[in-house]
Amino acid sequence: MKTTLMAAAMAFAATGAVAAPEAYTLDPSHSQVVFSYEHLGYSTTYGMFSGFEGEIMFDQEDPANSSVEVSMPVRSMLTGWEKRFDHFMSDDFFGAAEGDMITFTSTGIEVTGEDTAKITGDLTIGDTTKEVVLDATLNQAGQHPMEGKAWAGFDATATVLRSDFGLDKFAPNVSDEVQVMISIEAGKAE
Prior knowledge:
By secondary structure, the protein is mainly β. The protein has two helices and ten strands. Helix content is 11%, strand content 50%. Strands 1-4-5-6-7-8-9-10 form an eight-stranded antiparallel β-barrel. The two termini are 25 Å apart.
C-alpha cells in the first residue's frame, strides 16, 4: 500500500497537490456494503447498504496517518424481501426509526503490504460501539478518466458478531457471525 500510495502521491504532487492529508468524498453510486449470514444451515442470506456518505483523509507520505469516516441510514438496508426488511427494522433487531445511523470511524491504520492495510475503527449500531478491524485493499488510486480528478477505490472485509450489538435474535440457529464485504470509491473533495 505504501508503494502504491507513494506513487499516487507523486502523481498528485505533479498536479499541484500538497503532501498532507487530503479529503476524499465517497462516491455513493459506487460504494456498497454487502453482508451475509448463515440461515439455519440451509442457506447464506445477503443484504446490502448503498448510497451512503463518508470521507477518507489520505496522507500520501504516510498512509498509516490516513483515516476514514462513514455513516449510513439503517433504513437504507436492502434485503431483497420486504417482510425481511420489516422484521430487521422491528424491535427484534434494529428497532430503527427514520434518521437512525450506522457509523464507522477509524482509530488507526496498520499498513500490512504494498496495497493492504488493517483499518481499526469504532462501529456504532444503535447505542452500542465496538471495535472492528477491516482487512482493506487499495484497488487503484489516480486520475479518474471521466471525473477528471484524483480518485481511489478500496475493498475491505470483516467479520462482525451481531450479538455484540444486541442483534442476536435466533442465534445460534441464525449465525451470530456476519460476514461484511465493502467496496468503495472516493473522489478528491472540491
